[in-house]
Prior knowledge:
The structure is a homodimer. Helix content of chain A is about 45%, strand content about 10%. Chain A is elongated and about 85 Å long. Chain A has two domains: about 170 residues, Alpha/beta knot (3-Layer(aba) Sandwich); about 70 residues, Helicase, Ruva Protein, domain 3 (Orthogonal Bundle), CATH 1.10.8. The model of chain A has no long low-confidence stretch (mean pLDDT about 90). Chain A is α/β, with parallel strands linked by helices. In chain A, strands 3-2-1-6-4-7-5 form a seven-stranded parallel β-sheet. Chain A is built from ten helices and seven strands. At the A-B interface, helix 1 and helix 7 of A face helix 1 and helix 7 of B. Chains A, B: Pfam families: SpoU_methylase (PF00588). Chains A, B: It is found in: Cytoplasm. Chains A, B: Homodimer. Chains A, B: Its EC number is 2.1.1.200. Chains A, B: Keywords: Cytoplasm, Methyltransferase, S-adenosyl-L-methionine, Transferase, tRNA processing.
Amino acid sequence: MLTNIRIVLVQTYHPGNIGASARAMKTMGLTDLVLVSPRCFPDSEASRLAAGAEDVVDGARVVQTLEEAVSDCVQVVGASARLRSLPLPHFDEPEAMAQELVAHAATDPVALVFGRERFGLTNDEIRCCSHQVSIPANPDYGILNLSQAVQVLAYETFKAWRQRPDSQYRQPRPAEERQPTREQLTHFHEHLGRVMQASGFLTQPHARTEVQLQALFARARPSRKEISLLRGLLRSLEESVKDD
Amino acid sequence: MLTNIRIVLVQTYHPGNIGASARAMKTMGLTDLVLVSPRCFPDSEASRLAAGAEDVVDGARVVQTLEEAVSDCVQVVGASARLRSLPLPHFDEPEAMAQELVAHAATDPVALVFGRERFGLTNDEIRCCSHQVSIPANPDYGILNLSQAVQVLAYETFKAWRQRPDSQYRQPRPAEERQPTREQLTHFHEHLGRVMQASGFLTQPHARTEVQLQALFARARPSRKEISLLRGLLRSLEESVKDD
Lengths: 244, 244
């Protein structure tokens, strides 16, 4: 599915942006890069900024026109910072765009197209697109660097893919800590209550304070190890209080 | 609200990353930048990569320790590419992190902390944090460039803010095209039906074909101007068909 998603960069001026875009793509599982008439390519700046994504740069296809780059695609989304007067269907939210793009990519090639750093896409190039998307930004300063725009839209694309049941993406998680039983928690709270009384903080069982503390620890969800640690602390406090 | 959200960069190695991060911040409405012991700052690379966000770079506060940078904050989220063994509350999804961060920022300063390019944050620095967040990425290549990570988390932060009813963010939209009335649409479809028959495509009214075309145009939602254009085309076709 992600292999069906193509990133197309049109007439990129700075080769560094090509490298940084390749890196952005690869961190989000995308590898199909096509360059339309790049100004300077291949270039050492592209390789340098690519960091560990040089394979994406090296595998990039170079073509002369946007038409060649997307002719086999069933959906072509032009990323544009500026609203156009052409009434192409427009996604206000990259999230919505990504969900549709990934859905189509299940069966056919699709493309996300980015224009020149300064000038974006021409009207003719917009005509090669089926949709437009913009990244909602600061109204006073809303033009993202090209590779940053690639990163954001690639991020939303990867997110849309992850959230599909058929992607089978597994969130890496550290090994779960074991949780204490209700009985262990009760013993802990009783112990805490005894120490609060022994220290003179409470002169008698005080339901409200104890309930508040139970709520606090319920939110904290201490693991068994942590309860153990706290009970060790409570025992030391009990000893010190007795010695006074 | 957005002014309460601080971006903290710890011991950044490449000044270019400071500039690119400042630009990423500003596109997403964030301006409070704090640098903890940057290796090279001020630096022309930082200004160059900042593009139109030099004001954010120039206004950056420089401190010696992370503690100084965040002491007044009520929530401090450490951005970490690597899962830590320290059981700090962890956000799997930047989206969820951003919603909480923005909610707290309504009343108090909060911070998003980014570590060194190669080494991230130290365990002592993680201890200055209340939460961790990671950006879900390609398991085979998941380390985003520092300024790209800033862009993605700033983007989610701005999105969380926009989506709050109290932000009063207005999506810029081109002027709405007027929609045709049901009657105008009916006349269009009748006209289309006549042309299909006149051309020999249909030998008689064909409910299924007509219903399919009505569904297509219902999805396309032609504006009044577009219906007008189509009817002009249909009239020309009618004329040509008659002349045959």
